[in-house]
Amino acid sequence: MADITAIILTKNEEVNIRKCILSIKPIVKRIIVVDSGSTDGTAAAAEALGAEVMVNEMSPFLYAKQFLYAMENGNIQTKWVFRFDADEELTEESAKEIEKLCNENEDTDVNGIVVRFEVNFMGRAIRHGGVYPLRKLLLFKYGKGNIEDRCMDEHCVLFEGRSVEVVHDSLHHDDKGLTAWIDKHNGYSTREMQDYFNSVESKEATGLSGEHALDAKAKFKRFLRWKIYYRLPAGFRAYAYYFYRYYIRFGFLDGREGKIFCFMQAYWYRFLVDAKIFEAEKQRGKNRT
Fold it and tell me: How far is the C-alpha of 262 from the C-alpha of 253, rounded, in Å?
């Protein structure tokens, strides 16, 4: 076991929460679940597995705000904090590696750990399309890092020190099905639209300012988003995104599930974001007249 407090954010995650908690329980000292008013059995299932449940109802459900709530109200006393999602799961190999890295680096300048995931969609591992491996800085030493306060695309950041990456894959596998995926990404699209306007109206629209604490890969991805993707014409950029993922990055090698995944990410989710940006711009124009 390592000196870790895991923070899991939930909203109707009864289907996923059990496997999530069981995968991290052997290596962490404490598990905090921050529930945003679930109407299913999420809270009861988490408590039955030994997690502490803090209810903080929030609409819309903002990941960064909920995580910051846990950081401010969770009385965290461990060396490490582990941000984990209910649809994520450690493997036996990745759990042992994370435990080892945390214990070995308690007194070094390694203040963050990047976890890599294999994404599963509709029961199939997505290994192409630029998705694999999905890398996220999820562990940091308490007081040495935190999460960005953004509507969407929030990352854990380090205030100082460096990060190392886990070699073994963990799993990103949502068992709630395609309808739940669509509902979730509909909410994501609204938050992405809000984040777009927040960023355009601030220096973060450059993709450079205020991001010194992001790890290099996260900083590069945000640079691409603001310096290239959002400078393409609305509508066309969804097509370009699909073409890049499905053809250039060989998404077609993931079979029918891979095609659906690329299509839904581009022509549904990314196009929906553009549509909501267009709608908001029209409304802003009316309000100025």
Answer: 11
Q: Which two tokens stand for residue 273?
A: 């974001």
Confidence bin at 5 (pLDDT 50/70/90):
very high
> What's this model's pTM, rounded to 2 decimal places?
0.91
Phi-psi bin for 199: left (phi > 0), alpha (psi -120 to 50), beta?
Answer: alpha
In the chain, what are the domains? 4-173 (3.90.550.10), 178-288 (no CATH)
Tokens for 28, please give them. Answer: 């962490």
Tokens 């959002």 correspond to 230
**Structure tokens belonging to residue 136:** 């996220």
pLDDT in tens, 271-280: 999 999 999 9
State yes or no: cis peptide before 133, omega within 30 of 0.
yes
Helices (H), the chain: 14-24, 42-48, 63-73, 92-104, 178-200, 216-227, 236-243, 255-263, 271-288
Q: How far apart are CA 215 and CA 229, in angstroms?
A: 20
Looking at residue 244, what DSSP letter applies? Answer: I
Closest CA to 82 of 122, 32, 140, 38: 140
In what helix (H) or strand (E) does residue 110 lie, and over which residues does it extend? Answer: strand 110-121
Instruction: For 58-99, write each residue's pLDDT tens digit.
Output: 767 789 999 999 999 999 999 999 999 999 999 999 999 999
